[in-house]
Amino acid sequence: MQKQLKITINGKHYAIATDEDDNDVYYAAQLVDSLLKSKTEKLPAGSEDKAALIVALQLATDLSKAQRELKSVEQKAEQLLMLLGKEA
Hints:
By secondary structure, the chain is of the alpha+beta class. It has one domain (3-87). 69% of the residues lie in helices and 16% in strands. It contains 2 helices and 2 strands. A two-stranded antiparallel sheet has the order 1-2.
């Protein structure tokens, strides 16, 4: 069941409906807020859209890297399990 959570990003308040764990959502909101603040400080005033795009690309890049790393670890684990199975 979806619940309403209130978050603040870049000084703006949002009410969002989510099924996700509250702590995960609040952590994600804090991460986005922190990244957005650091980007907007480096850009000219009125560049919030550009800063938001840069943050979205940064987070998507980080996610892509993490997914590749996870897949690599899973493949190594499968190889190790196969080797252990052959030795048993």
